[in-house]
Design a protein that fits this description.
The complex is a heterodimer. Chain A has helices at 18-34, 56-59, 70-76, 124-127, 156-163, 187-203, 254-261, 264-267, 270-282, and strands spanning 3-10, 39-41, 81-89, 95-103, 106-112, 137-139, 142-148, 168-173, 206-211, 213-216, 219-222, 226-228, 234-237, 244-251. By secondary structure, chain A is α/β, with parallel strands linked by helices. Chain A has a single domain (3-262), classed as Nitrilase/N-carbamoyl-D-aminoacid amidohydrolase (4-Layer Sandwich), CATH 3.60.110. The longest helix of chain A has 17 residues, at 18-34. Chain B has helices at 11-27, 42-55, 72-85, 95-102, 110-131, 142-147, 168-178, 182-186, 199-203, 207-219, 224-229, 234-246; strands spanning 33-37, 60-64, 88-91, 134-136. In chain B, strands 3-2-1-4 form a four-stranded parallel beta sheet, with helices on both faces. The chains are: A alpha/beta, B alpha/beta. Chains A and B meet through strand 10 of A and helix 1 of B.
Chain lengths: 291, 276
Amino acid sequence: MTKLRLGLAQFATQLGEVRANLDHHLEFVEKAVQQDVQLLVFPELSLTGYVLQDLVPSVASRPEAGDRTFGPLLEASRRLDLVVGFVDEDNRHRFYISAAYLSQGQVLHVHHKVYLPTYGLFDEGRFFAWGDSVRAFDTRWGRVGLLICEDFWHASPPYLLWLDGADLMLFASASPGRGITHGEKLESAWWVEHINRAYASLFTTFVAHTNRVGFEDGLHFWGGATIFDPNGDLLAQGPYQAEALVVADLDLAQLQRTRSRLPLLRDERHALVRREIERITAGSSGARDKG
Amino acid sequence: MPPDLSLNINTDLTERILTHFLRDEILRTGLRRAVVALSGGLDSALACALAAAALGPENVLALRLPYATSSPDSLSDAQLVIDQTGVQSETFEITGMARPLLATLPAGEAKRAGNIMARARMIVLYDRSAATNALVVGTGNKTEILLGYTTLYGDSASALNPLGDLYKTQVRQLARHIGLPASILAKPPSADLWAGQTDEGELGFTYERVDQLLYLLVDQRYRPEECVEAGFEAGFVRIVIDRIRGNQFKRMLPIIAKLSNRTVGYDFLYLRDWGT
């Protein structure tokens, strides 16, 4: 497969209303199928809403066919691949901010958010458990990496996915808009676009990001989904502050052309990185290491 | 790079976010109308114009709530906003409901008198919101919220507030951008509680200067001594910090004594938008 028609859903949710949000997902699936989209990505916590607080235990799902939320989504994944955002509850009742990759009726991968912002307006660490792995996985379109919002505010998860073989990075956010200035964009939007372009350029890979829209109390989510190609060029961008289905055709052969010109992946020195990380972390107290 | 003390904002983007905020956060409650107390001043004129843009002028009720001593200019300036935006309007004089209570005050109790008038207006506003299935749109800006220059359960009472994260100087920018009437843009801010009263006269400093200081203290997290280094007089910095701290109570719901394992406000945590 050298071409992929990728769809990014900029999507408003109802807070804590999983059934209504599921219906909204299925509406976007219909729209995407009509446009021959092959992979459709929804934002962070797209099935539940974002500022869940004490709603967390009541909105959790299990990514399996018998689940009343995932059943219809797995069925829909026979028509196109899907990435959906949800609250995953493990069998010992820990709750994770999660994203699942669904394809041809199967769950190919579940990512648990590994960085939970608990500062400023964010309070995720109060309500959720920390994920503890960052893994790329194989799909019909090649090897993919999946991260959720704060995960990619840290450089290490995208870097690990790059080393683990991800040629398509899918980032899902529920990013509250903040930082109004005289500039063209909110500071939060500028920052996210800036680093996503940087990741695409540094890792010579495709980087697609989608983000919530709508409001939760006074917080607004700014949308502005983007797709950058391995040269760091912008392939598509969604509108700000409005629902949209953003579609772009990815020419996966661009990976070969860019990496022939710019062999950053070939020359990356894993062993050197490992040695230096071991040296650096051995010399620290470890008190601040979250493991 | 030192902070930009112009406090300039992208007014197109701000207008878009705030009109979406009003539309989304009112419609999701199942209602579609708003009421705004229109004083003739800048803040309420802007809130009214934003509500009209968000919901359509036919769904916005502007209330003029004069007291006997209110400036006639306030009524006529409010009328300019009503005419310009096309919103519904009603005028209800609060003199009759406020005067019996005001008559019990000793002379010189201007602050208590002002609070009584502000709370009388709140009563009318909330009554009309119930009568018309509307939500009360607030008009308080970030400057007055931080300084506590507001009456608790009076002008601070609202269901949602589009202006609460804009400093007064930013309210002016947005009001100019939207094209509010020139007489409203030009006149000095006033609570209009007595003849000749102005906000800046009462506060003892200008909005322009205090907004710059608040921006450093609150938004940029400057320490007090860093504000002095940045050119603000030490006494002014102290007064403003004391006002911010001393008025924290006006920015909160009443505190509840915790007894049980689950208490509203501490560990019973849901957004207002819960389920919508």
